[in-house]
Amino acid sequence: MLRTFAAGVALLWAAPALAAAPDFPTETVLTDHIQPRHAALHQSADRLHEAAATLCAGPATADLEAVRAAYHDAMDAWAGVQHVTYGPIENFNRRFRLQFWPDPRNVVERELGALLREQPTDILAENGLTFASVAIQGLPMVERLTFGAEADALADGTDDGAYRCRLLEAVTANVAAIAENLETNWRETDDPWPAAFRDPAAADLVADDADLAGIVLTGLTTQLQSIRDQRLLPVMGDSAEDADPAKAESGLSGRSLRGIAASVEAMADGFDLMFAPALANAEPELADLMGRAFTQTRATAQGIDGPLGEAVTDPARRAEVEKLATQVRALQQLLATRVASALGLSLGFNSLDGD
Amino acid sequence: MPLSRRSLLTAGAVGAAGMMTAALPLRRLSAAEDRGLYLSANTGRDGGHRFSAFTADGTVVMDIAVPDRAHGCTLHPDGDTVAVFARRPGRFVVIASVAENRVLRTIDSVPGRHFYGHGTFSADGGLLYVTENAYDEEAAGIIGVYDATDGFRRIGEMNSGGIGPHDMRLMPDGRTLVVANGGIRTHPDMARVKLNLDTMDPSLTYLDASDGRVLEQARQPEALNLNSMRHLAVTPQGRVLCVQQWQGPADRTPPLVAMHERGADLSLLAAPDAVQGRMRNYCGSATVDPSGSIAAVSAPRGGLVTFWDLEAKGFLGSTDVADGCGVAPAPKGAGFVITSGAGGAWRWESGGAAALPAMPDDRRWDNHLTLRG
User: Fold this and answer.
1) How confident is the model over A252-270, as pLDDT tens digits?
2) Domain A35-189 -> CATH class
3) Does this complex have an ipTM over 0.85?
4) CB pairs under 8 A between A and B
5) Is A184 near chain B, with CB under 8 Å?
6) Which of A77, B7, B177, B183 has the fewest CB atoms within 10 Å, i.e. the most exposed one?
7) CATH code matching the domain that covers B33-372, chosen among 2.130.10.10, 3.40.630.30, 1.10.40.30, 2.60.40.2140
């Protein structure tokens, strides 16, 4: 892979001047990828909130299962936009407010404990969570309340259970409000981000469509790196004995691999719209390779039985997890080096730094 | 249009970006005349984190491994010792010798503190001041004070005058520290989450280096409280350039560059709309030329480096550099050197820009570039 990287860098810097610059269908990416996926996130978040309200109106075990199913749907939709690392998600801490993770110090659990002890009501008011700790605002708190060891308390009719329910309603309302804001921002005509996708050359935000394509590509490589470095490697450890199932994302609901598969599928969708046509012109063989790489990576993620935390400690399934990590790494390297150089795009380093 | 129309800084790109070269009193200096060394943290293709120095033609002459990604650095008045600061929320400061190309000592943060990424030596080099986060305490912004004459023992600390002190410089009087208090509260348990956007109060704060007394604070208008003050450059005349990162929505594009002189209000400088928009509300670093009249401010999210006239308090022009962030003045007013997170370094001067010929292609340059003239 090192040699590939070197070749990519050399190509980029040699800047072959005669090739025609590719055009990128940024408006299609907006209307057929970004907008519908954020609409899906908003809708699933609304349904999650409705399911929580139903559960809390009349506690019943069946309703808890409905909330859990709605949580999975919302997480799938969230996985479907996580590679959109730019735009409205960057404002007001929205990414961390939706999903505070990784959480190696169990801040979500600790803060839930404090809430249950003190039972503050200000955060339960409309928009009361907006400026509260990011750890209690989003989907990890929903998971903790609905999949945690004491999830049944939601339906037990006690004071403690009633507070848990009101908190669940408030948190799901907050998630729905953030999701609504994201969808609205991406649809607004005067928001600079959708404007840039509609007409990059005329936009203030970017110089041209290639500039924007570099941002979109950086979103893909950032998400792939996060899948490998945050979601897989820390759980895998160096060996089955060294594995750390507690570090799995969404471990309580056992959906780490499902989330990875959903994210890879969404990235493949975005890649097909934004980059595949130009790549098919510039380097048809690379375009074919990318198609296969996305398909195989998703298939590997979908093919592993059981939660990630279990799979990494079982020698047979662990090999498949290792394969997944390798494929994700390869996909990221292909995008960062060969695709970037074939299309004359550059990826961010300092631009992602945040300092 | 060439394939890599956005990728790299070229003379053409300078012209296309509307650079008013005639207005820039820059002189030409051949690489051979430039005896400067340029220092910067970087990350190799192998993922290893380093701190390095290169000459005017891009030859790397110092290359040391550091424990993790580093951020800014500051030179000791002896001209050889350099303090390299961990990137937020890191816990190391590496003290190194440029000439000997080796680490002299590594300082760890004390319990309850981590480093923010910047610091400065005192005028006599006896003390090292470092911006730190007291993340479990109310008075979060801390300047740690270390005795450079006694093994960099931590001998005390003072309040920075705000939350989230980031860049810090010693003023030309040798007695005053100027700190950019970004206003953002963070905690190492919470990754890089910004915890207090609702109550942000960024300020430019002047401290008495001897006792930490707050001598003066300059703030932006209240409507710009989400404009985090991050990086600084100080002219020989004592003018302070402060560059910002906007934490609010993208449909507002507030001024990102401010200039301050003691006793006066902040002057907020904005680029023309088209350039201001492309800066993507995020400045990476700032520097001034030796005369103190021209500043370079990088906007890595926008892939731009902008230039500013500090006498006229106005925008001069910009040039495209993909992920360009590190900026340092070339000696004797001969333009600026720019590094990129995508790799590469360029000298920009009035005739255009040229890549440094001996610059290796095996590393990504981090946020800041520092000249040892």
Assistant:
1) 999 999 999 999 999 999 9
2) mainly alpha
3) no
4) 158
5) no
6) A77
7) 2.130.10.10
